[in-house]
Amino acid sequence: MNQIGLTDAAALPGKPTFDARAMTGDDGLAQIVLDEKVYTLRITKAGKLILTK
User: Fold this and answer.
1) What pTM did the predictor assign?
2) Torsion of CA 12, 41, 45, 26, to 10 degrees
3) CB distance 39 to 52 below 8 Å
4) Which strands form 49-52's sheet, in the order they lie side by side?
5) Rounded Cα distance, 45 and 21, in Å
6) Are 41 and 50 in contact, with CB atoms under 8 Å apart?
7) DSSP states of the chain
8) Which of 6, 30, 46, 53 is positioned for an S-S bond with 24, CB 3.0–4.6 A?
């Protein structure tokens, strides 16, 4: 997965930045693992992000 460059003032300089649509693919879902726990990242129909355990 590639990081993207943003000119948005909200982006923190020097921090990894990722495109959520690229992460989630066509179905708008991605799994993220943290300490052997799986979380689901979802893009809603309204274009919001939800992260659930």
Assistant:
1) 0.75
2) 100
3) yes
4) 29-34, 37-43, 49-52
5) 12
6) yes
7) --B-----TTSPTTS--B-HHHHHTTTTEEEEEETTEEEEEEE-TTS-EEEE-
8) 30
